């Protein structure tokens, strides 16, 4: 069998052997080249950054680019909701539906596309998203820019989670921590730049540095194994594995050459069925939290404080992302196998805030209480994500891992998409009350 060699095998082998191996039943430990750990953290950061920023800017995108009839403030009526005519869930759908399409279809063809071409497309679409939204003067054009961010994030997540199959399993925790870092740094940077007086447009232009960092992280920092198909499609039928990888299950056999398994449809379906115990709870967690974020955040408004509605919305997004960052970085300290518990708690959060919005008692609780609830929401979401993919990584057979990681990442996107579809009529219902 042929192997596709696209990196320096001697460099990889020398550095890959410098750390201890990982045990499949334990949280990841330090192993492998440290530059690869740093690279995966930065890849996670850069991949999710544009996606996060677009959600943080959602209220501004809809409010500043609407004409006078597109922005409706109903404070002069019996309604106590301060609303945009278009729900921020519209930005969420533009930011997630292309990702959903990519994640549903990519596991069945993406292995035919070399990794370098995939990452190059991620870089170009991320940069395009910032430029389009920055210079747009119409909501429709801005939503097109958000779609570009979605393509970059969705293709990147499928690509980089698949890429972890070629490295020791501990890179999953660094990738996940990086995606959490994207949340807090993306939301905080947008909040900080706008608080300093930069316009939303100029704030987005500053963030063009992120696609450049993605390019450096992948093409210059990451040390790829020789089996990684970088510029040419894989021609081997053996399993992807880093040179120091050990069988995940006792007695499991590996082809000595390393490479890519070409799985049949029936085998892929069996793998997907085995993953449902993780995929369904993860979908529920993300359904609940994004129903909160894009359906209810805009309606949780404290009118008698110094912060404007837009500023409150940005703080909600930032605190949520802070919780996500902490929990996505917690795998080395806490490992959770029962993901369904997290989904139950997150649904309770959504029900509590929905009832609070309905009966308008949230302002009486005080802003700090809402801040704590939002941080808790982020902690649950981040914990569900990192533990789901860690569990799949350590339990999958080596020859199935690349497909399993790519297939499972549709779970959160499916939950987010459903929440966006439901959040729009919920927004319209509350904003139409008189």
From TrEMBL:
Membrane-spanning ranges: 38-58, 89-109, 115-133, 140-167, 173-193, 205-223, 275-292, 339-361, 367-387
Subcellular location, record wording: Late endosome; Lysosome membrane
Biased composition (Polar residues): 1-10
Region of interest called Disordered, as start-end residue ranges on this chain: 1-31, 232-253
Chief location of this protein within or outside the cell: other
SUPFAM superfamilies: MFS general substrate transporter
GO cellular component terms attached to this protein's record: early endosome; late endosome; lysosomal membrane; membrane raft; neuron projection; trans-Golgi network
UniProtKB keywords: Endosome, Glycoprotein, Lipoprotein, Lysosome, Membrane, Methylation, Phosphoprotein, Prenylation, Transmembrane, Transmembrane helix, Transport
Topological relation to the membrane, as annotated: Multi-pass membrane protein
Superkingdom of the source species: Eukaryota
A Pfam match: CLN3
UniProt cross-references to InterPro entries, sorted A to Z: Battenin_disease_Cln3, Battenin_disease_Cln3_subgr, MFS_trans_sf
GO biological process, one term: intracellular monoatomic cation homeostasis
Similarity field: Belongs to the battenin family.
UniProt name for this protein: Battenin
Source organism: Xenopus tropicalis (Western clawed frog)
């Amino acid at each position: 069998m042929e192997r596709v060699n696209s990196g320096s095998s001697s460099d990889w082998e020398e550095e890959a052997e410098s750390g201890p191996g990982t045990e499949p039943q334990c949280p990841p430990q330090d192993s492998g080249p440290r530059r690869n750990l740093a690279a995966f953290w930065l890849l996670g950061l850069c991949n999710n950054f544009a996606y996060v920023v677009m959600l943080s800017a959602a209220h501004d995108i809809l409010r500043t680019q609407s004409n006078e009839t597109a922005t409706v403030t109903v404070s002069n009526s019996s309604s106590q909701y301060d609303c945009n005519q278009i729900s921020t869930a519209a930005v969420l759908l533009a930011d997630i539906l292309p990702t959903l399409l990519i994640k549903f279809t990519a596991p069945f063809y993406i292995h035919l596309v070399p990794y370098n071409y995939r990452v190059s497309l991620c870089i170009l679409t991320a940069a395009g998203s910032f430029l389009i939204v920055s210079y747009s003067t119409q909501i429709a054009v801005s939503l097109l820019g958000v779609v570009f961010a979605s393509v970059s994030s969705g293709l990147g997540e499928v690509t980089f989670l698949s890429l972890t199959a070629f490295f020791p399993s501990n890179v999953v925790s660094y990738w996940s921590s990086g995606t959490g870092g994207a949340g807090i740094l993306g939301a905080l940077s947008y909040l900080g730049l706008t608080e300093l007086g930069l316009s939303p447009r100029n704030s987005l232009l500053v963030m063009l540095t992120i696609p450049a960092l993605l390019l450096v992280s992948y093409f210059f920092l990451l040390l790829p194994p020789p089996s990684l198909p970088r510029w040419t499609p894989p021609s081997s039928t053996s399993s992807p594995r880093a040179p120091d990888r050990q069988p995940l299950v006792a007695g499991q056999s590996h082809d000595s050459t390393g490479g890519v398994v070409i799985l049949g449809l029936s085998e892929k379906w069996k793998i997907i069925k085995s993953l449902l115990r993780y995929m369904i709870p993860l979908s529920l967690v993300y359904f609940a939290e994004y129903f909160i974020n894009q359906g209810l955040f805009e309606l949780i408004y404290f009118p008698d404080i110094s912060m404007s509605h837009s500023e409150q919305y940005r703080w909600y997004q930032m605190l949520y992302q802070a919780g996500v960052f902490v929990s996505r970085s917690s795998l080395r300290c806490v490992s959770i196998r029962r993901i369904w518990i997290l989904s139950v708690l997150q649904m309770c959060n959504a029900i509590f805030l929905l009832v609070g919005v309905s009966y308008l008692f949230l302002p009486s609780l005080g802003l700090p209480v809402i801040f704590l609830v939002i941080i808790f929401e982020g902690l649950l979401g981040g914990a569900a994500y990192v533990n789901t993919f860690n569990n799949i990584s350590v339990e999958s057979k080596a020859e199935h891992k690349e497909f399993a990681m790519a297939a499972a990442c549709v779970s959160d996107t499916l939950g987010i998409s459903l929440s966006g579809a439901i959040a729009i009529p919920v927004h319209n219902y509350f904003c139409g009350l008189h």
